[in-house]
Specification:
The complex is a heterodimer of chains A (557) and B (267). Chain A is mainly beta and 557 residues long. Chain A is 2% helix and 35% strand. The chains are: A mainly beta (557), B alpha+beta (267).
Chain lengths: 557, 267
């Protein structure tokens, strides 16, 4: 819009040279000073900025920090020597009853965080004060296995993208929270939902879908970031005639689950997107879906422009324990057995840590990182588990480790290129697994059984474990009582941050696991910490209970 | 989850310890999914008008033609025009809007529904003089309105989004806002000007302020925050960032512009 033909038009509506109506006001005489003020232009986040996220450690530009999902902050103001001095800087209470699993984004001192019921708040990252909020209207009735959840947004340009528990994908104006487009990804009445943060690749917004407990057929979608138009959909379960469909008995592929409910990772050099898939359905009754059930419990390598599957690796063939491969794959490069390799570290819910070549999908090794009783081990040639007999769910109950929740789950691991260690929140518990009839009915749970705790949850070890990702060796562990389901953050300052269900937030020495600092936040920590810079200082934010807590070192005198 | 939510709701009504509120949150009409208004006599309309004036007029105007809140005299409502939808929205509010619930007994809520219905008995849509097509041209050219206002995703963001203005505002209100915008500034659009220690000036729309800091949306459309220790002055003039256009748009031009703005409805 130009102002041509505007002679005599009122002043004050051209943004280039703003003048107030009454020049008697404070400073109408000083318009030039606007230029001199050094406003950090909030021009939005170009795709180039996302690609080069490691060049701006003061911001947290995407769910896992960078495309490699290392969740490694390159800020080092807070380090081993001063972490004990961390102070609470601000708290922001969210207006929600749901649990917070959000990973906030921070762009140029503006923080974007979400609640379980799809509220987004834009906050000043220095004070936690609110600029705007948006609440997505949800239907009264939703088919959700595990309550409402949301884990965060993605950004591109000046738009935010959020998936909703009623299976929509929204584009919103990052400056105001206004909805720009609203795409229906799935049908919430059939159990489809979105809980993960989307991922932006070039001009595409990639989102997965949840609903593995409702007999959906999982898929991964790419939407045009500008228009919201669906560009491709790749099903995780091959249809008739496609390779892998024969790994499903009869029509069981139609209701086989394999959802995509957690955010993946991306390698821009290989141009491959990596995304984990969830359990086959019904969860605990495998008798109605004999076969390996491809590509459930797998990681898929996908060409982002087309959705073409380039390679796949299945961690748990014919899973009957609900061990989704919903963990975030960590991408890193290292010399492995004398050769520089592009690698993927994956600590699976089934209690094994896997190292894969992410270029080819070649399985390199797998090793137990938490207690398990279901496999003799993993065949180090093929990557297939060697199962212990009689560990399937039964009518009378079968005791198996790990639990349904798994040895690991969606909560993010982290990797420090400085220590070369991989950090995972691990759980050594076991559970009684029961099998039951499974009849598919649209929108109803389709699980074929259930699990029962074998004893009090705190009798098992829950711990942050540091692993050498090239061997699977355990370097140290930090036990958490009673347990933890929080994500982790490693930093250039040589720290690992994490939380626990007891509401404790802690900083560990990344090299030794020594606890350097902790605070009681009075609310369960389920989320993952992030770090960013504001006002020239490093900050660390964690969601706990119904609030966001932000810490920093004392302000310099 | 639902148990948790229910108990938390109970806890909150206990906190306010208002017996009527307790009945409300556990509204029988909501529970039974009542679809049709059972309280529609003239006496109900009169009773509803009383509640409306007390609880609703601050935003919707004493006569329901709108203020900060939308005009309610059209007979069509964005968030549902059925009795059940009106009942629910009046009872518990509308998420992501300024509309909070009024949490009163079911009968009062139904009476407000009856009153709101009575407002649109005249047919709803108001006859507006003026040519909306020509008004649109004025909006886009001479008015430079889109420098600051957004319409269906394009335009500035400093002023209110006008995409659905025709739903929210009566023509008189639109006219008054063009002629003298400072008379009725939307709550979220207060003007603020701050001067920094270095003498720089930032002007925009106030978002938040406390003892120690202030947040605003500046006129270059940046979200900004300042510690008050960094500022030498904060001014909140009772002016709109929008200049008064009464001398700029008169007679037919003003009619046309109002007609255009009144014609703006969500797609």
């Amino acid at each position: 819009m130009t102002n041509t033909g505007c002679a005599g038009a009122p002043a004050g509506i051209r943004r280039e040279a703003p003048v107030l109506r009454k020049p008697t006001l404070l400073f109408a005489a000083l318009p030039l000073l606007f230029v001199a003020l050094g406003v950090s232009a909030q021009d939005g986040v170009s795709y180039e900025r996302l690609l080069a996220a490691s060049d701006e450690p003061g911001n947290w530009l995407m769910y896992s920090g960078e495309f490699n999902s290392q969740r490694f902050s390159r800020l080092d103001e807070i380090d081993r020597s001063n972490a004990a001095k961390l102070q609470l800087r601000w708290v922001h209470q969210m207006r929600t009853l749901g649990r917070l699993e959000t990973t906030p984004l921070v762009i140029d001192e503006v923080m974007y965080a979400t609640t379980a019921d799809n509220v987004i708040v834009a906050l000043d990252a220095r004070t936690g004060r609110r600029y705007w909020s948006y609440a997505h209207e949800l239907p009264d009735q939703l088919a959700l296995c595990c309550g409402k959840q949301n884990r965060g947004v993605a950004i591109r340009g000046d738009r935010l993208y959020m998936g909703t528990v009623d299976a929509h994908l929204l584009a919103l104006d990052a400056k105001t929270g206004a909805v720009i487009w609203d795409a229906e990804v799935g049908n919430p009445r059939t159990g489809q939902s979105i809980t993960a943060a989307p991922m932006v690749i070039r001009d595409l917004v990639i989102t997965g879908i949840g609903g593995g407990e409702y007999g959906i057929r999982g898929f991964l979608d790419a939407y045009d970031a500008d228009t919201g138009e669906l560009r491709w959909r790749t099903h995780t379960i091959p249809g008739p005639g496609e390779p892998g469909n024969e790994t499903w008995e009869g029509d069981s592929w139609k209701t086989g689950g394999a959802p995509t409910w957690m955010t993946g990772s991306y390698d821009p050099d290989l141009d491959l997107l990596y995304w984990g898939t969830g359990n086959p359905g019904p969860d605990w009754n495998g008798e109605v879906r004999e076969g390996d059930n491809l590509h459930s419990d797998s990681v898929l390598a996908i060409r982002p422009d087309t959705g073409e599957i380039v390679w796949t690796f299945q961690f748990t063939p014919h899973d009957v324990h609900d061990w989704d491969a919903c963990q975030v794959p960590i991408l890193f490069d290292a010399e492995y057995q004398g050769e520089q390799r592009k690698l993927m570290a994956f600590a699976n819910r089934n209690a094994f840590f896997y190292l894969l070549d992410r270029e080819t999908g070649e399985f390199l090794f797998a090793r137990e990182f938490a207690r398990q009783t279901w496999a003799e081990g993993i065949d180090q040639e093929t990557g297939r588990p060697i199962r212990v007999p009689n560990m399937f769910p039964s009518e009378e109950g079968t005791l198996v480790a790990p639990t349904i929740g798994g040895a690991a789950n969606w909560f993010s691991p982290t990797y420090s290129p400085d220590t070369g260690l991989f950090y995972i929140q691990a759980y050594d518990a076991e559970m009684l697994y029961y099998m039951a009839e499974a009849e598919y009915e649209e929108g109803e749970l389709f699980v074929g059984g259930y699990g029962k705790p074998a004893g009090p949850g705190d009798q098992y070890v829950s711990a942050v474990r540091a692993l050498d990702p090239l061997t699977g060796d355990r370097v140290w562990e930090y036990q958490v009582q009673p347990r933890s389901t929080s994500g982790l953050l490693a930093t250039k300052g040589g720290l690992v941050f994490g939380g626990s269900v007891a509401g404790i937030f802690y900083a560990l020495d990344a090299g030794t696991g020594e606890e350097l600092w902790h605070r009681r936040l009075g609310g369960n920590v389920y989320a993952a910490p992030i770090s960013y810079e504001a006002g020239g200082q490093q900050h660390v934010t964690i969601a706990a209970g119904r609030a966001l807590f932000t810490f920093a070192l004392p302000e310099p005198e | 989850m639902s148990l948790l939510a229910a108990s938390a709701l109970l806890a909150s009504v206990t906190f306010w310890s208002h017996p009527a509120a307790a009945q409300n949150v556990l509204s029988k009409a909501l529970q039974d999914r009542v679809q049709e208004n059972p309280h529609t006599t003239e006496a109900d309309v009169a009773a509803g008008a009383k509640v409306f004036r007390r609880s609703c007029s601050l935003c919707h105007g004493a006569d329901g033609t709108g203020g900060d809140g939308p005009d309610l005299t059209r007979g069509v409502f964005r968030h549902g025009s059925s009795d059940a939808a009106l009942f629910r929205n009046i009872l518990t509010g509308i998420p992501n809007s300024g509309m909070g619930g009024i949490y009163q007994p079911d009968k009062s809520i139904w009476q407000v529904v009856s009153y709101v219905r009575s407002l649109s008995r005249g047919g709803g849509e108001e006859e507006v003089p003026g040519d909306p097509r020509r008004g649109g041209m004025l909006y886009r050219s001479r008015g430079s309105c889109s420098d600051c206002h957004r319409l269906n995703g394009s335009g500035g963001r400093l002023g209110p989004d006008l995409s659905d203005l025709g739903w929210r505002r009566a023509p008189d209100h639109i006219r008054a806002s063009i002629v003298e915008p400072a008379e009725s500034i939307d709550g979220g659009y207060r003007t603020v000007e701050v001067r920094t220690e270095s003498g720089g000036i930032v002007r925009g729309v106030l978002r938040n302020e406390d003892r120690f800091s202030i947040q605003l949306f500046d006129e270059f459309e940046n979200l900004r925050s300042f510690q008050k220790t960094e500022l030498t002055a904060i001014d909140k003039p009772e002016e709109s960032l929008m200049p008064p256009l009464g001398s700029f748009f008169r007679g037919r031009d003003l009619d046309d512009l109002v007609a255009y703005l009144y014609s703006l409805r969500p797609e």
